[in-house]
């Protein structure tokens, strides 16, 4: 007498349990992937932010700190001191490193401008001295920083070398450079940007051939001012 073999398979309940477990595993897998992707993106954003801060800081330290107190007295008109500072604009004379392709002194002009639906800090760079006849005159415009909500400058110094300096919102129609320049930047994303105080190595000169730099006492006083501001 033969016996029929029982059919081997899964019951409906077993199939439902397996599908439920599979669904839970898929949800957990994609959740883990999303957390990893978000963490990676936050890390990339932080690296970008740090790089932007470093670029802006290095620009002011390399160029503004070495600004030269020169007069624009080669146009035939009334001579004008090259360093001119407003609350959101700045003009000064400096040079590029020896490794750069640009040679000679350059006139740097910074200002906060609107670019579409955002504000940017733009830098215009032109040769300070007039170019010789037949030579090309180059002007470059570089975006230093985008997505800027607020950009403000203030200047520490005095017209009289014998008196103590004060912070001023502008530095116009002067015959010397300020001792210090304070830069404040706020971004649209409300990220923290440290306040920068740049010490100018040269204070002022009477002509383009007679250099007058800060004395050791002036430099020591400036360093104490910077320390007080940072504290």
Structural descriptors:
231 residues, alpha+beta, 5-stranded antiparallel β-sheet, 4-stranded antiparallel β-sheet, elongated
Short overview:
The chain is α+β, with helices and mostly antiparallel strands and 231 residues long.
Task: Give a description of the structure.
The protein has 231 residues and is α+β, with helices and mostly antiparallel strands. It has one domain (51-230). 29% of the residues lie in helices and 28% in strands. It has two helices and eleven strands. The strands form three sheets. Strands 3-4-5-6-7 form a five-stranded antiparallel β-sheet, with helices on one face. The longest helix has 53 residues, at 12-64. Residues 209-231 have low confidence and may be disordered.
Share of helix, binned: 25-40%
The structural domain count equals: 1
* pLDDT < 50 stretches: 209-231
- Estimate the global geometry from the Cα principal axes: elongated
Proportion in β-strands: 25-35%
Average pLDDT: 78
User: Main sheet?
Assistant: 5 strands, antiparallel
First and last CA, distance? 100 Å
The total count of helices amounts to 2
Structural class: alpha+beta
Secondary structure layout plus pairing:
Layout: H1 12-64, E1 71-72, E2 80-81, E3 84-85, E4 89-95, E5 105-115, E6 118-127, E7 140-145, E8 148-157, E9 166-168, E10 180-187, E11 196-199, H2 216-230
Antiparallel strand pairs: 1-2, 3-4, 4-5, 5-6, 6-7, 8-9, 8-10, 10-11
């Amino acid at each position: 007498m033969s016996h029929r073999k029982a059919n081997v398979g899964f019951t409906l309940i077993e199939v439902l349990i397996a599908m439920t477990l599979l669904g839970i595993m898929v949800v957990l897998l994609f959740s883990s992937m999303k957390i990893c992707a978000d963490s990676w993106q936050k890390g990339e954003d932080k690296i970008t932010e740090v790089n932007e801060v470093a670029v802006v800081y290095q620009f002011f330290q390399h160029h503004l700190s070495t600004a030269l107190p020169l007069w624009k007295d080669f146009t035939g008109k009334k001579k004008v001191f090259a360093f001119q500072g407003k609350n959101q604009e700045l003009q000064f004379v400096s040079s590029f490193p020896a490794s750069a392709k640009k040679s000679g002194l350059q006139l740097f002009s910074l200002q906060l401008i609107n670019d579409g639906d955002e504000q940017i800090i733009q830098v215009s760079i032109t040769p300070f001295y007039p170019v010789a006849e037949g030579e090309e005159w180059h002007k470059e415009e570089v975006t230093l920083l985008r997505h800027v909500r607020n950009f403000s400058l203030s200047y520490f110094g005095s017209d009289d070398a014998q008196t103590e300096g004060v912070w001023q919102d502008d530095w116009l129609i002067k015959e010397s450079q300020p001792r210090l320049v304070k830069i404040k930047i706020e971004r649209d994303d409300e990220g923290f940007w440290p306040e920068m105080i740049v010490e100018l190595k040269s204070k002022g000169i009477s002509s383009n051939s007679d250099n007058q730099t800060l004395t050791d006492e002036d430099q020591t006083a400036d360093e104490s001012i910077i320390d007080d501001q940072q504290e």
